[in-house]
Amino acid sequence: MTTKKDYYEILGISKTADDKEIKSAFRNLAKKYHPDVNKEKDAESKFKEIQEAYAVLSDPSNRKKYDQFGHNAFSNGAGFNGAGFDFSDFDFSDIFGSSFGFNFGNSQRSSRAKRGRDSIIKMTLTFEEAVSGAKKVINIDVSQSCSECDGEGGHGEKTCHKCRGSGTITQEQRSLFGVYVTRTECPECDGKGKTFSKVCSKCRGNGQVKINQDINVTIPAGVDNGNQLRLQGKGEVGVNGGPNGDIYIEFVVKNHSLFKRDDSDIYLELPITIGDAALGVKKQIPTLYGNITLTIPEGSQTGDKHRLKGKGIEDVSTKRKGDMFIIIKVLVPNNLNKEQKILFEKLNNTNLDRSSAIKDFEKYLK
């Protein structure tokens, strides 16, 4: 008599393993030993062994029985060996998903309502449009429910003869370990459970048609690079009565020739002459909200910063306006004529107060 292997040992887990560890171990081993993937001689039997172990340990009631009585808990027709290995109660598709290449029991019928796909498009805005908001029109191709067949895909509906309206095909396979059951989507009706006497000529059975449409879009003030605007329900049509998807507009904002943006704040570099920096001056400054007069104090230096509160960009979420910062840049003249050079030499020879930085530097020259 062959001694059956311990279920915990089969999955390579400890007896204190939680549900997450059990599922993870089963997923990895099933992928490794599934007969469609592994062509070794004992792959199929190993795969059935893994299934059996998971079927017991993933069920709290069966696991409790196994921990108490071992394999005897399911002997003499009391469980898997006698009654058959029915996996229809296990949603293996939840473990593997559709990307692994094979299907297990409880396949989701495609007749259930499904949400339509989302779409994303990029829209380029000028700096001014992003700051102040704008109205735009986008042109896009989207799928809509076919008006000819009301999205059904055909006319003369009838129950699928292959799956008898269930949308799934059930198959039993016997092995050394018993019988296991798999359910797959019906290939005849694509899981809908129904077929048609006549396929719709307009959508060719898809139930959907592509249409080109213009959509009016209101862009709120304050959007920035990478921000997205959601147009709810304007995307692809849903399947089997499911809701439409959404369209997401992602913004690309052009640079401005003067203003630099940092979130809701903006920066402007203001060039002034060396004379204006020394003597002070009043300057006309452009802002997002019109020109203002800014007083530049005497003795200004390159890098000095002036803050104009509330003259920045309105935050798209909070509606609070940022600030504007004026950064001074003192221009040193070049290509001086003879007269100008003489004036600067005379000025340089006067007893002008020199900055502490120059004085500190000159200390090390003595």
Question: How would you describe the overall organization of this protein?
Answer:
It is a single chain. With 366 residues, the protein is α+β, with helices and mostly antiparallel strands. It contains 10 helices and 15 strands. The chain has 3 domains: 90 residues, Helix Hairpins (Orthogonal Bundle); 86 residues, Urease metallochaperone UreE, N-terminal domain (HSP40/DNAj peptide-binding domain), CATH 2.60.260; 103 residues, HSP40/DNAj peptide-binding domain. β4 and β5 form a beta hairpin. α2 runs antiparallel to α3. The N and C termini lie far apart (104 Å).
Strand arrangement, major sheet: 10-11-15-14
Rg estimate, integer Å? 38 Å
* Net shape: elongated
Helical percentage: 10-25%
List keywords for this structure.
366 residues; alpha+beta; HSP40/DNAj peptide-binding domain; 3-stranded mixed β-sheet; 23% helix; 30% strand; elongated
SSE arrangement:
Blueprint: H1 7-11, H2 19-33, H3 43-57, H4 60-69, H5 80-83, H6 92-96, E1 119-125, H7 127-132, E2 134-145, E3 154-159, E4 168-175, E5 178-185, E6 194-199, E7 208-219, E8 228-231, E9 247-253, E10 259-262, E11 265-273, H8 274-279, E12 281-287, E13 290-296, E14 305-308, E15 324-331, H9 338-348, H10 356-363
Parallel strand pairs: 1-9, 11-15
Antiparallel strand pairs: 2-7, 3-6, 4-5, 8-9, 10-11, 12-13, 14-15
